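Action item from last week, closing it out:
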Amino acid sequence: MLNKPKKLDIVLYPDKRLRQPSVKINNPLDESIQQLIADMKLTMQNANGIGLAAPQVGKNINLILVDDGSGPKVFINPVIIYSSRSQNIFEEGCLSIPEVFGQVMRPEKVWLFYRDENNKFHFKISSGLEARILQHEVDHLRGVLFIDKTLKITQGTEKLELYESNAK
């Protein structure tokens, strides 16, 4: 039986855990995974986030949550199998890099396979905001941050420099 969801601490840049590749989840129905999903939903909502990857709460496993405004969706072991040639630029931020925003070019549409929290297998074609959030969060699973893909930092350059100087 699951415990009441609790708010988790968000791992902040430049923490090395954000750069580690995540591993596949073998049993999505395991109670510890189900508890983590519940805790991550609460954490994302409390932080007013639209996406959260397990590495951002210190767990390097292939689990992300996405909320494009229609409520949180769970993606376990997501694999993007197609990205459209057409791309667009949009400003992104990240709960793990507070107060820093930048313009990132990403494909407008992606196709992916994943499992949900009930271990049900899905194929999804995603576009718009949901596609962007999915790509951002899947990057987290590979240890890639939006600042790695930023064309231009639009806000928080001094914050980013401060974070990076603290890493040394």
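Closing note: Residues 31-46 form the longest helix (16 residues).
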